[in-house]
């Protein structure tokens, strides 16, 4: 298996988010915030987003989405249908995971096309779903994503 790149480890002074119900925590930059909007088809879900608001969306740009899906197989089936998707076995915090990488971007709404990641981690008989969430991708966002992933802890 391959590990996620360690190029952006969690920084000193980052905040910690803990989900006691599903047994995981991670660190995130103090310049970001947690939005705990429950998404449809998820038992639990949060976004880590910028504090500055996007004038069109009315909220911060999402950097990462982490959730516990009620049906992870449906999400994986959809990802497998994407053209050019790459699937790789990895580990996250020493737990087996599957990472899907694919090209994403929409010219009609002027988002910057980029490679994006979706990760499924098996922990305590549950799937934890981690998604690179921002369409307005910047190098800083990519570094934050990798830093957050590298700081994940399961308990």
What report would you give on this structure?
The protein is mainly β. The chain is 14% helix and 48% strand. The protein has helices at residues 72-80, 139-151, and strands spanning 2-3, 15-19, 24-28, 32-35, 42-53, 60-69, 86-92, 95-104, 114-123, 126-132, 153-154. The strands form 2 sheets. The protein has an 8-stranded mixed β-sheet. β5 and β6 form a beta hairpin. The longest helix has 13 residues, at 139-151. The two termini are 22 Å apart. The model is unreliable at 4-9 (pLDDT under 50).
In short:
The protein is mainly beta and 155 residues long.
Oligomer: single chain
Low-pLDDT windows of residues: 4-9
Rg calculated over all Cα atoms: 15 Å
The major pleated sheet works out as: 8 strands, mixed
Mean pLDDT: 83
Quick one: overall form?
globular
Overall number of strands:
11
Helix proportion range: 10-25%
- Helix tally? 2
Q: What is the terminal-to-terminal distance? A: 22 Å
Secondary structural class? mainly beta
Q: Please state roughly what percent of the residues sit in beta strands, choosing from under 5%, 5-15%, 15-25%, 25-35%, 35-45% or over 45%.
A: over 45%
Strand order in space, largest sheet: 1-7-8-9-10-6-5-4
Order of helices and strands: EEEEEEHEEEEHE
How would you summarize the topology of this molecule?
Blueprint: E1 2-3, E2 15-19, E3 24-28, E4 32-35, E5 42-53, E6 60-69, H1 72-80, E7 86-92, E8 95-104, E9 114-123, E10 126-132, H2 139-151, E11 153-154
Parallel strand pairs: 1-7
Antiparallel strand pairs: 2-3, 3-11, 4-5, 5-6, 6-10, 7-8, 8-9, 9-10
């Amino acid at each position: 298996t391959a590990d996620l790149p360690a190029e952006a480890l969690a920084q000193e002074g980052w905040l910690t988010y803990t989900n006691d119900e599903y047994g995981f925590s991670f660190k995130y930059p103090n310049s970001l915030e947690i939005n705990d909007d429950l998404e449809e088809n998820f038992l639990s879900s949060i976004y880590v987003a910028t504090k500055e608001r996007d004038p069109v969306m009315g909220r911060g740009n999402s950097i990462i989405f982490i959730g516990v899906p009620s049906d992870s197989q449906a999400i994986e089936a959809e990802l497998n249908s994407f053209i050019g998707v790459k699937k790789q076995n990895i580990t996250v915090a020493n737990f087996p995971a599957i990472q899907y990488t694919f090209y994403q971007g929409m010219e009609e709404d002027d988002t910057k096309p980029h490679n994006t990641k979706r990760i499924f981690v098996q922990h305590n008989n549950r799937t934890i779903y981690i998604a690179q969430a921002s369409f307005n991708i910047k190098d800083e966002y990519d570094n934050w994503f990798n830093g957050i992933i590298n700081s994940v802890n399961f308990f």
